[in-house]
Structures are given as C-alpha cells and as structure tokens.
Amino acid sequence: MTRQIKYFIWIWFIAALIATAILLPSPILAQNFSVAPAEVKIENLSPGDEAEFELTIYNKDNISHTFILTAYNPEKSQRRPGRAELPDDGWINFSPQEVEVAASSDAKVKVEVAIPSNQEWAGKIWEIWLRVAPKDKDFLAVNYYIRLLVSTSGEVRSVSDIGLFAGIIAVLLLLGCGVYYFRCKTKPK
Amino acid sequence: MKRGIVSIVLVAILALIPCLPALAQDTGTITITMTGVSELSITLDPTEWPIGDVASNTEYETQPPIDWCTLTNTGNVNVNTFIVGEDAKWVDGAYKWTLSSDETNGEHIYGLWFRIHGDTARDYVPITKTESEFWPPSGVTGEEIGASDSKQFGLRLLTPTFFYAGRQMRTHVTISAVAAA
Questions:
Q1: CATH number, domain containing residue A84
Q2: Chain B within 8 Å of A143 (Cβ-Cβ)?
C-alpha cells in the first residue's frame, strides 16, 4: 500500500512538471529592447566644432541581439515646430554603428555630431532622428527613433582657429629672431 | 639688453591680439540636454503570424481581427508610432511578392492592412513600403500613446492574383516609436 502511494505521488509530481512546462507562457518576448534617452538637445554648437553623447540600448531578451544605428530625416510634420531637417546626415557618426548586446544586458553607443566649418550653418535650428533597429526581426518588429535637436551658434569655429594658429607661429618666429639677435649681439668680437 | 627683451615681449603680445577671439571662443558653452532618464520602450505580442498555405487573390485576417496584437508602451515617455511594410521574400531564393502601394493586388503583388481597435475614424489602413502613421493618425494631436497605455490591432493580407506555388514566403512589418512632439 505504501509503495502504491509513493508510486502515485511520483506520477502526480511528473505530470505536474509536464503540465507546467506546457501551460506556462513563453518567457521570450521577441524584440524586447529599449533605448535611452528618448531625446537629446544640443545647443550653441559652433560650425566647425563637434559634440558627443551616449545612447544606451537595453536588451531585455534572454538571447543576444545585434542592433544597427542610422540617422533618419523625418518629414516636416513629424519635426518639432520651427525645426528644419539637418542638411546632411553624414554629420552624425555612430561608434559603433552596429552593436551586439548580450542577453539581459545593455550597451552604450557614442554619437558624434560634427557641423562643418561654414558660415552657412551658423544660427540654425535642426532636428534629425537616430534610428535603432534590430538586425534580426520577427514578422512584427520594433524600431526606435531618438529625437536629436541641434542648434548652432552664430560664430564659426575654424576661422578663429586659423587666426590662433597664425598668431602662435608669429610669436614663435619673433621669439626665435629675438634670441638669435641677442646671442649674436652678446658674442665677443 | 633689457630694453630689447621688453620690445620682443611687447611685439609678441601685439601678435597675439588677433588670436583673442579664438581664445575667448574656447570658453563658449555647448549645452547637451538629455531629458532625465527618458526611455523608449514598446512591446508587441504576438510577433508572428504563421498563416500556412494560402490561395491566390484571397483575403486573410488575423484572429481575432482587430484585437490580435497588443502594442504596449512600457517606457516612460508618451510616444507616436509609425508602421512600414516590405516585399515578401521567398526564404530559399530571390523570388518575391511586391508590397502594393495602392491597395490593389496583382501578379506577384500583395496587399497588407492594419486596423486598430477603437479607431472609429479609420477602417483598415494600408501598410506600404513608405513609413506612415500608426497611432495617432496623421493630423491628430494630443492622442499619443502614454506610458503603460496599449493599443490592440489586427492585420489583413490580400494574396497576389497569381504567384508561384509551393514557396515559403516571409515578410516583416515594422512599428517604430518616437517621443511625442
């Protein structure tokens, strides 16, 4: 009798284990990832200068995923009021552009914004979106766009840099000539 | 001797005067603002629609038709969402069905639509290869998907009027989220 009870308890235990495995919802929710921050605002960036910041991609899946980052110019109706599209999405650089994020982990991507040194780009207000997309997709997939809001200052950087460079060379030449002159003058004849 | 040194220093200072704007600009402030700990996060459940064998020129709908998939905003910012489709590709080769851009099917051309539960202004909305508004609809403001809010929707597929049989086709529909304007 005791042996029979033990047998039924074992049968019941194994059946319960099997039922749990079948009835539990799958713990995997495909494409479960998030991105932060949702918006980045860069103000007073001089043409010829650059700014950088980091995005964080959180992979909430229990398998690793690879994500691709690209710049995307949205339509006017999708941009914030008063913002024009960034003239060239090549001014945005991702490092790395493709990143593998381990399961239940996160990774950071450095974003550099470099505006060419040109008076044409001074005093502008732009918006561009940064797209984060998974490389492998289910039938239904999720992408995110981070709003990048950029405004430039009225001053252009490189013109001043040339002045600084020329000034330093002039000072070095003057000092060199001065040292040479006084060494020659103090040399006994 | 001393007079000479003073003269050189004075000339050097004069030469550096044009550089002052550049030196001053180095103290200019670039402000980078990243709004708190704002996080973009949406989930879709389910993410697969295994239809099985299909006939030509036939409509298929997800079941239940407009409550099939749940989109949930699991982030902490209100979002606007967009949807885009793509051509269906044969998993073993180059053959494809082109996604229709005008809601009609044709030879090797198929159609896709979505319909959102509670969207009384729109019926089935075509999904094309050009990204368009999912929710809120175009021109509607103040109805973005808030944190913890969800939207249920379904899909409709119209198969091509003619296609090569016996080939397994696969396509993707991508839903994108951006912080609401």
A1: 2.60.40.10
A2: yes
The predicted complex's ipTM stands at 0.83
A65 domain residue, yes or no: yes
Given a contact cutoff of 8 angstroms between Cβ atoms, the answer to whether B115 and B124 are in contact is yes
Interchain proximity A140–B173, CB inside 8 Å: yes
User: What's A181's DSSP letter?
Assistant: H
Torsion angle, alpha carbons of A131, A134, A140, A145, to 10: -20
DSSP lists the bridge partners of residue B109 as: B98, B106
Residues of B in contact with A136 (CB under 8 A): none
Q: Which chain B residues are closer than 8 Å to A43 by Cβ? A: 30-33
B132 touching chain A per CB within 8 A: no
The pLDDT tens digits of the residues spanning B15-48 come to: 666 555 555 444 467 777 776 689 999 999 999 9
Q: How many domains does the structure of chain A reveal?
A: 1
State the residue range of the domain holding A95: 30-167
Q: What is the pLDDT of residue A162?
A: 56
A127: exposed, middle or buried (Cβ count in 10 Å: 0-12, 13-18, 19+)? buried
Q: Which residues of B touch A72 (CB under 8 A)?
A: none
Kindly state whether A164 is in contact with chain B, defined as any CB-CB distance less than 8 angstroms.
yes
CA distance A143 to chain B (A): 4
DSSP symbols for B67-88: TSEEEEE-SSS-EEEEEE---E
Whether the link from the prior residue into B136 is cis, omega within 30° of 0, is yes
Q: How many angstroms separate the CA of residue A102 from the nearest CA in chain B? A: 18
Rg of chain A in Å (alpha carbons): 31
A154 touches chain B (CB under 8 A): no
Collect all residues with Cβ–Cβ distance below 8 Å to B86 and sequence separation of at least 6. B99, B129, B171, B172, B173, B174
**Gap from B44 CA to chain A (nearest CA, Å):** 8
Q: What is the pLDDT of residues A151-177, one digit of tens each?
A: 998 877 654 555 556 666 766 776 676
